[in-house]
Amino acid sequence: MYRNILKKDLQNKKTMNAILLIFIILAAMFMSSSINNIVSISNGIENYFDKAEVGNYLLLSRRDDEKKFEDGFSKMSDVRKMRIERQVKFGNSNLIKNGHRLDLDNEGYIISVDGARINYFDDDNEKIKSVKPGEIYASYPFIDNYHLKAGQEVEIRFGKSVRKLKIKGGFKDAIFGSYMAGNPKILVNQKDYSFFKNTGNAQEISVFYLDVSDSDSFENKLSDLPQPIFSCDRQMLKMTHFIDMLVSGILFLMSICLILISLVVLKFTISFTLSEELREIGVMKAVGIGNLRIKGLYLTKYFAIAAAGSFIGFFTGIPVGDYLLKSVSRSIVLSSQGSLLINVLSSVLVMAVVMLFCFGCTAKIRKVTPMEAIREGQSGERYRQKGCLELSRSPLKTNFAIALNDVLSNPLRYLTIGLVFVISLAMVLSLSTMTSTITSEKMLPTVGIDISDAYIDTAKLKEESGTGYVKQGVREIEEKLNDAGMPARVDLKISYNYLIEHGRRMQMVQCQKAIAKNNSDDCQYVKGDAPKSAYEVAITDVVAKKLNAKIGDRIIINRPEGRRRFLVTGIFESMNNLGGTIRLYDGLDTEKSIVSGALAYQINFDDHPTQAVIQKRVGKMKKIFKTKKVMTASEYSTKVTGASDIVNGLKNAMLLVALISIGLVSLLVERSFIIKETSELALLKAIGFRNRTLTGIHTLRFVIVGLISSVVAILVSPVFTNVFGSAVFSNLGLKHVSYVSDPLRNWLIYPAVVMLTMFSCIFATAQIIRRIKASQVSNID
Fold it and tell me: Which of 473, 511, 523, 642 has the fewest C-beta atoms lying within 10 Å of its C-beta?
């Protein structure tokens, strides 16, 4: 009997069961692929570092200071192992492709494969042991970002010394070889390396790969050594691969939302099925069949659908996960492409959640009596008015009045389509808001830079200006702009790596200041004030926790200019160095310190031009300074955050998923309504209503629901934004983010696109009404 009933149910409700199956497949697919990728990447990075033998502490120094560091580390008991690798720096003026200089975003490094002290890997994840003279390997981010190809020739030039080299292929580099870090790397033969090293203007640095027993204790002893160019522990290096984790994390949140949509659809499906089959349930109860056996009949059907959906989702999740890992495996050596066990467990989890929810939804069977079931859920007469509007007194047109009355009189009927609409649209709006925020100029204070009219990347100008990071370079730019009839004030934010002490705690921290001005209020302060005098500083919350410092405390900064106490005056947030930053007073003397980095030159025109004029001047400045790296505030914000393209791609993917979800659910709900209202529709046809009118009424009902749901989605989207945003910005050192939304897109375009999709699906499905005949009115009991 069970078998025949199930077979009949599956045949009669093909559309409903198929749509539910599709949602379970999507949920299982995204859940298994995203969890698998999160585990693969997080474990893969750790294993990759072990395989590359990078150690657990990295330090870069000038070549002249190498001996001092080597002797100092040899005497430290915390240093268990030390390896020294030398690299030659190169920039825009050194690398030529097809007769044109490459406009690099960051400085690059040339490495000798014979002098390498960590392992570098090729596309097959094999260690590169040798490179032929005249050939090079380029890091994969370098290849992808600058459109290089294997077999292509590039020219490396230092002064008058030139060498043409052929690209053999790409390689994977654990140190700053991620797409987030973006430092170009070139692996060459020792003979070619010696050629570049011995040229007159080549700058060689020393890279120390250290295995230390206690990084905190080790950093406490760095005060007796020269100032390094850069230093960080293993955990900080792992965070350079954060963008690789971002896609999987957001896809995981998307899979949770898809499960919620699946549960909403399941609730509607079960409720509709039970209401349609109340008579059958009453008959089964009347002949003595128990509640559990009746419930088991429905649970068996949904178990079959959940099992089939999870099974298909398991297999489809494998290629989806592998596809998503492709971009990651370009920069990381992954020992395996994921675990099948994780895919299995994820699919089983989806099936278990669906079945538990299904068990709860079928509880209604226990409350139904045989008499109520035979009367289709009615236990007596209805003594209240069903409708909220009276057609005779309503100023609305007939179609709209009937549609509005139907929605207002029984809103729970439209809860399913409303919830799916809200969840889907809210996810799209949240990702859209994140994209707008990342590309907004309001993000610039989070990297410690003023909102200016224009920005010029330092990577191009440092060779031409002679100093690049000092005041002379700023003056040269001001002079060129003045000569071009665009007088402006120019500034530059530079950073130094200093050893900071507070009590018994020490840490190597990036310290930032501006060259031209004496105003340190350009950061996003959450507590206290900006430093107002030379021996005051502001620190980030990340630094405050590591040093156990607060506002009013005095910290010690070890600089070449001397060891001095500084008063902490404020707490700010910054994405620089993943939050490990200190803001110095701009007037502090740092002439003896080594500059470890710089942001873009900030251009503020004296005549305060409009945005249109600024855009024209940006084009002129590109010609004057012979670089494409001249940007507006919005363009520079997009560059420094680095995640806008990824978030925008996820937003477009989510929009597609949302449209599919809305389309399928609209088809399901409208088809169910037509089945349930067949007798009423036949009666309306019998008294003279036309197909066009009935189709319009059905469509208008969902348009009204869509408009209400759009407003709700817009109101709740900030909650989704905080969930998605915290997953991104908290890992970059930000906890307080002022989100920026695009009203045109978020309040009009995206709701209109989703509404149009729902309208199209409802209108197309409503054409089934044309098949209903007036004679079917006899089905009314």
Answer: 642
Reported as a single tens digit per residue, the pLDDT across 214-229 is: 887 887 787 778 878 8
CA distances from 159 to 90, 100, 331 (A): 12, 16, 32
Under DSSP, the state recorded for 225 is S
- ∠ CA 631-637-639, rounded to 5°: 75
Under DSSP, the state recorded for 263 is H
* Secondary structure class of 158 (helix, strand, coil): strand
Under DSSP, the state recorded for 387 is -
Question: Both tokens of residue 167?
Answer: 């690209």
CB atoms within 10 A of CB 379: 8
**What are the DSSP calls for 115-140, one per residue?**
T-SS--B-TTS-B-----TTEEEEEH
| Contacts of residue 96, Cβ cutoff 8 Å, sequence gap at least 6 | 102, 154, 155, 156, 157
**Can you tell me the distance from the alpha carbon of 33 to that of 45, in angstroms, rounded to the nearest whole number?**
18
Residue 462 pLDDT: 47
Burial of 202 (0-12, 13-18, 19+ CB in 10 A): middle
**Cα–Cα distance, 615 to 582 (Å, whole number):** 33
* Nearest of 75, 86, 112, 107 to residue 183 by alpha carbon: 107
The kind and range of the H/E element at 568 are strand 562-573
Total length of the chain: 781
Give the angle subtended at the CA of 631 by the CAs of 583 and 746, to the nearest 5°. Answer: 90
Q: Give the angle subtended at the CA of 455 by the CAs of 453 and 457, to the nearest 5°.
A: 175
Inter-residue contact 172 to 334 (CB < 8 Å)? no
- b or e along 596-613 (b: 16 or more beta carbons within 10 Å of the residue's beta carbon)? bbbbbbbbebeeebeeee
Distance of CA 26 to the CA centre of its chain: 20
Task: Provide the token pair at 371.
Answer: 């008499």
- Strands (E) in 436-561, as ranges, are 454-456, 488-502, 505-514, 524-528, 536-540, 554-559
The overall average pLDDT reported for the chain is: 81
- Give tens-digit pLDDT for 138-180: 988 888 878 888 889 988 888 778 888 999 999 988 887 777 7
- CA dist 732 and 580 (Å) reads 10
SS3 content of the chain, % helix, strand, coil (to 5): 55, 20, 25
pLDDT tens, position by position, 489-501? 888 888 888 888 8
CA dist., res. 311 & res. 319, Å (int) = 14
171 Cβ neighbours under 8 A, 6+ residues apart:
120, 121, 122, 128, 137, 138, 139, 140, 185, 187
Those residues whose C-beta lies under 8 Å from the C-beta of residue 511, and which sit 6 or more positions away, are: 495, 496, 497, 498, 537, 557, 581, 582, 583, 584
Distance of CA 246 to the CA centre of its chain: 5
Residue 123 carries which side chain, given as an amino acid letter?
A: D
E strand intervals along 225-272: 230-233
